[in-house]
Amino acid sequence: MAAGAAATYFGLRNMGSMAEYNASVAATRSALKQAPETSDLIRYATLAANSHNTQPWQFKISDVGIEILPDMARQIAIVDPDNHHLFASLGCAAENLAIASGGRGKPGELSFSSANDGAVMFAFGGGAPVEPALFDAIPKRQSTRGDYEGKAVSSRDLQTLYAAAAVPGVDLVLITDRPQIGRLRDLVVAGNNAQIADAAFVQELKTWLRFSPRQAIVTGDGLFSATSGSPALPAWLGPVMFDLVFKAKAENEKYARQLASSAGVAVFVAQKEDREHWVLAGRACQRFALQATALGLKHAFINQPVEVAGLRPELATLVGLPERRPDLVMRFGYGAALPFSARRPTESVIIS
Ligand SMILES: Cc1cc2nc3c(=O)[nH]c(=O)nc-3n(C[C@H](O)[C@H](O)[C@H](O)COP(=O)(O)O)c2cc1C
């Protein structure tokens, strides 16, 4: 009786369970039918990586294809003031959509339209190749923010990753050299220090954090603590604990450990600095992530050196592409899976 009252008092009863959460995300990741509805292809598109799990997209179905539009209500203005990540996220979703549709006998072509805010068009037709390994990886891919095992990736698998991520307009640099990874770690730490010292950055991040399974299920978006290997907590307690533990020193030590345990780092650098090329960078990184998943590898973004603008020139020099703007940074390696992240219901992202 007393334990029951205490559980109610501390909000434990209302926080939901991981079993409920896992069942809910499993439904969003169920395998595509042989002849899926267009809305089910869109569900696969939404399983793409996207910044802060904001899912900043809307899908418009027509006879000729599917348009992917930015949802400007889901901008994250502090960390992403020029919507770079927002358009990269659209690229990630577009790539999933093209692979999913091609895998179910409806290949198509992706293109960018700069009309209005900019949008990605997936037009049915054309002879894009079916990519079974990438297709199968779509519901299995996750950003895995844990420590990895420190094991190297064979040069053959590195080649496969490099080839899979080839998207015209985007250069990929793979870093596996330890001293170079060390220099990259220093940039991540410098970026982290700048971001954690910025109250507006931390405040914005907190609005996208989810602490209880129920909160994560109900919103269907955001960064749920359990997906990063942190404990699930009652929704009221999470922000309090976050303020206590989210400190630069501890975060920097964590990133240093995570990078030391990774097999390498992929840096994506588009050839131009505009929305069309940010979409292309997103497409390349999604392809890389899917191929990594197919090879049994895990991946996680470490974008601090591209988010803190002052660090970009140093990163560009480190990857041998001075004067260019690096777009995305992703570590990879062998490691254990974590709980999947949630998605909003597909109906809520389809517009007419
Ligand atoms: C453009 C972009 C930027 C991202 N930046 C980061 C980042 O800096 N750190 C991080 O941990 N995850 C980052 N992510 C990963 C997202 O948080 C992740 O994709 C989202 O929470 C959904 O989870 P999932 O990838 O496991 O499906 C980024 C993703 C994208 C597409």
How helical, in percent, are the residues? 40-55%
Q: Which percent band covers the strand fraction? A: 5-15%
Strand order of the largest sheet: 3-4-2-1-11
Examine the secondary-structure arrangement and name the CATH architecture.
3-Layer(aba) Sandwich
Mean pLDDT across the residues is 96
Shape: globular
Using only C-alpha atoms, the radius of gyration works out to 20 Å
Number of structural domains: 1
Number of helical elements? 14
| CATH class descriptor name | Alpha Beta
Overview of the molecule:
The protein is an alpha+beta fold. The protein has a single domain (15-185, 257-351), classed as NADH Oxidase. It has 14 helices and 11 strands. The protein has helices spanning 2-9, 18-28, 38-45, 84-103, 132-137, 155-164, 178-196, 199-207, 213-219, 237-245, 248-260, 275-294, 304-307, 312-318; strands at residues 57-61, 65-70, 108-113, 119-124, 170-175, 209-210, 223-224, 264-270, 298-301, 328-333, 350-351. The strands form 3 sheets. It has a 5-stranded mixed sheet with strand order 3-4-2-1-11, with helices on one face. The chain has a 4-stranded antiparallel sheet with strand order 5-8-10-9. Helix 4 crosses helix 12 and helix 6 (155-164) packs antiparallel against helix 12. The longest helix has 20 residues, at 84-103. The radius of gyration is 20 Å and the shape is globular. Flavin mononucleotide is lined by residues 49-53, 85, 88-89, 92, 142-143, 145, 223, 300-301, 303, 328, 341.
